[in-house]
Amino acid sequence: MQSAGNRLGSAMIQFTDVSVRFGDRQVLKNISMTVPFGETLAILGGSGAGKTTILRLIEGLWQPDTGSIMIDGQEIVGLSEQQMTHVRNTMALVFQGSALFDYDEPTAGLDPINTHIIKELICRLHGQEHVTQIVVTHDVETAYQVADDLIMIHQGEKIFDGTGSALKMSTDERVQAFLHPDAVLAASDEAVYSAAR
Asked: Under CATH, to which class is 4-167 assigned?
């Protein structure tokens, strides 16, 4: 068994060209991502973008149509339920109140004090325990505060992968629309106003 210090930087979770389709709907399209051991990755995106699907794939609750998913060096695609149980024993799910949230919107619906406590816990687990974490959120500020790296999913496609500062500098219109929805709404209102004249 490697010590935490020796494992830092190696891939704990790795997706390679993962795609998921439900009927005619493409939920994930060729998603590739790496979460190094001991790091925190935030997954950003709008509702229905595919964020929760990624969590269900990591937990082995769903199987991808194509691609590879490695957890701590082990391919999990195609594992039996019994084999997947051994992999799940290395994971933790977190509860919010009496509801399971498994890092899917961990601060949604919380008051500011509890939101702060959850953010501090995520940061402490990262800094002191070197726990590998995935935080799924719509809250960009939470993502900036707790994550080493971020990815953004839009309509099942990864449109960004990098640091918080790189996200802020992105010129991708879809990224900017997510970061600054007020500007999109203002532009939309201006277009409607101009068309009405």
From this structure: alpha beta
Which residues have a Cβ under 8 Å from the Cβ of 64 and sit 6 or more positions away? 18, 19, 20, 28, 57, 77
Instruction: Confirm if 45 and 157 have CB atoms less than 8 A apart.
Output: no
As a whole number of Å, the end-to-end CA separation of the chain is 70
CA distance linking residue 144 with residue 148, whole number of Å: 8
15-24, 141-150, 180-189: range with highest mean pLDDT? 15-24
pTM score: 0.78
Q: Taking a C-beta distance cutoff of 8 angstroms, is the pair 20, 29 a contact?
A: no
**Whose CA is closest to 97, among 84, 83, 108, 86?**
108
Is residue 76's pLDDT more than 80? yes
Per the model's pLDDT, the better-predicted residue between 52 and 162 turns out to be 162
